[in-house]
């Protein structure tokens, strides 16, 4: 009684590797092959590029004084297969000590300098400061 059950379990049944059969299976395979050959490489290239410009975006956000150099390193990293990317990442997060010693600040105020609506206010403030300094010179008798 047990022997026929064991023999039946060892005999292979019909196996199906897919839910699809015939022409449907061929059509699904064709679509999958086009996706793998065209769509996947494009997605991988775009993701590779987006990851490699992250240090540049971080440097611009933090107003890093060497943001342009970090941008160049990111571009070079694209051509060298990502080998320079960790250096760009570290550089974007470092504080520029020598820049602070030279200029008194560790941020670059010229990044995003295209704000023309505040130019008139800056000129007005500078003229007021000049007027105050001239008045101080007059009251001190020309002595500094």
Give a written overview of the molecule.
By secondary structure, this protein is an all-alpha fold. It has helices at 2-10, 23-52, 54-61, 67-79, 85-93, 97-103, 119-139. Helix 3 (54-61) packs antiparallel against helix 4. The protein is rod-shaped. The model has no long low-confidence stretch (mean pLDDT 83).
How would you describe this structure in keywords?
mainly alpha, 144 residues
Brief overview, please?
This protein is mostly helical and 144 residues long.
Shape by Cα distribution: rod-shaped
**Which class of secondary structure composition applies to the elements?**
mainly alpha
Summarize the helix and strand pattern as letters.
Answer: HHHHHHH
Query: How many beta-strand segments?
Result: 0
Strand content: under 5%
Layout of secondary structure:
Layout lengths: L1 H9 L12 H30 L1 H8 L5 H13 L5 H9 L3 H7 L15 H21 L5
């Amino acid at each position: 009684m047990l022997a026929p059950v064991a023999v039946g379990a060892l005999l292979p049944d019909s196996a199906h590797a897919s839910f699809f059969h015939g022409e449907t299976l061929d059509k699904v395979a064709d679509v999958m092959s086009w996706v793998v050959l065209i769509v996947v490489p494009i997605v991988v290239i775009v993701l590779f590029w987006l990851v490699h410009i992250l240090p540049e975006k971080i440097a611009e956000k933090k107003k890093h004084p060497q943001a342009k150099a970090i941008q160049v390193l990111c571009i070079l990293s694209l051509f060298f297969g990502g080998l320079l990317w960790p250096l760009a990442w570290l550089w974007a997060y470092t504080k520029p000590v020598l820049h602070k010693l030279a200029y008194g600040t560790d941020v670059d105020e010229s990044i995003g300098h295209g704000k023309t609506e505040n130019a008139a206010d800056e000129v007005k403030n500078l003229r007021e400061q000049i007027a105050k300094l001239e008045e101080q010179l007059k009251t001190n008798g020309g002595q500094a």
